[in-house]
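Key result, reporting period 2: structure in, sequence out.
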C-alpha cells in the first residue's frame, strides 16, 4: 500500500499510472486471482493508538475522536482536484 500511495508524481503533481509490478498485481487483484491480506486486528489497534477510535464495551459513552492529522490536507487536495472552492 505504501508504494501505491507514494508513487512518483508528474510535474503537475498527479500520481503517475501504475507500471511494471504495480500494474500486474493490480490486474491480478481486480480479477480475483490474488487477494490482498486484511489484518483487522492490527488496523483496529492502530486506530485506537492514534485516538481515532475506541472499543465498544457495551455502554454508550460520548466519544470525540481525534481528527486525523492529514485529514485537512487530503480534503483540500480533493477539493482542488474537483474544482470546488472551500469557504
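The corresponding designed sequence is given below.
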Amino acid at each position: 500500500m505504501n508504494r501505491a500511495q507514494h508513487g512518483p508524481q508528474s510535474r503537475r503533481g498527479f500520481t503517475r499510472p501504475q507500471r511494471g509490478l504495480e500494474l500486474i498485481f493490480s490486474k491480478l487483484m481486480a480479477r480475483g486471482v490474488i487477494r490482498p491480506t486484511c489484518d483487522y486486528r492490527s488496523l483496529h489497534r492502530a486506530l485506537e493508538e492514534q485516538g481515532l477510535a475506541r472499543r465498544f464495551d457495551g455502554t454508550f459513552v460520548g466519544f470525540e475522536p481525534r481528527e486525523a492529522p492529514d485529514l485537512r490536507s487530503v480534503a483540500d487536495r480533493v477539493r482542488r482536484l474537483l474544482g470546488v472552492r472551500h469557504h
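The helical segments are 2-5, 20-30, 40-49, 71-82. The two ends are 33 Å apart (CA to CA). This case is discussed further under Risks and Mitigation.
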